[in-house]
Give the backbone structure.
Amino acid sequence: MKSHLNLSEFWRSFTTLSGDVREGFVEITRHSLALLGMAVVAVALTFFARPGLQVYASETLMSWLEMRQAETLDIDILLEGASRSTATSVKSLPKDQMAVTQWLSRKYKVSPEPVGALVSEAWSVGERSQIAPTLILAVMAIESRFNPFASGSQGGMGLMQIEPNAHSQALTPFGGRLAAFDPLTNLRVGTRHLQFLIQQSSTVEDALRLYAADSGQARDETYIDRVLSEQKQLDKITQGFKTAGVAPSHSGGTKTTQFPL
């Protein structure tokens, strides 16, 4: 009889304990889901209130995706593209390029080393395309503020907001569509397109108007003035420094051969 009572008490205790554990688990799960929901709402509100975080998250994600893609590509394929070096020691630059780099770095809050690489490349490409490097950099500044991962509403991508489908042939040797996010490739393809538009136009203003239409900036009535104002500021910075081999940016309509990418 006593043994039977002990068994009954044990079973009741076990049943009570099981019920308590089950209710506790349900309660913890409910609160966890509530906390998760609140966290999601908080993150969503934070991104909505601070658009800058969206840009940062987008850049971080794109950087990670490109790193993953690079790991899967054969090294020989990577070497076929434009040089991936997008950082240059500012001290190694000529004085005019150094001055422009420091000014752009401060204005657009970008580290001087990657800006220096773009400035150096703009000078090199400018000489080959007969377009003033300050005009190339000015277009870049207005189009993307030197954000290599910028994406436009009409499909423009990268520093000079080139449209990958329209420039697929030029991008193919460098890896295809995603090469538009490679800073140096983007600069070269964008400058080549600008050179083509200048050749087809009577003035640089007309060429910039066409460039704005292609990059999705056609509705910005101040686009041309902003680009030329930026270039004028950069030209002032380079005054006093010797710049050889680059034709003035106002030489629109000059029939020059397209430079090799």
The chain is about 65% helix and 0% strand. Confidence is low (pLDDT under 50) at residues 64-84, 243-254. The radius of gyration is 29 Å. The longest helix spans residues 2-49.
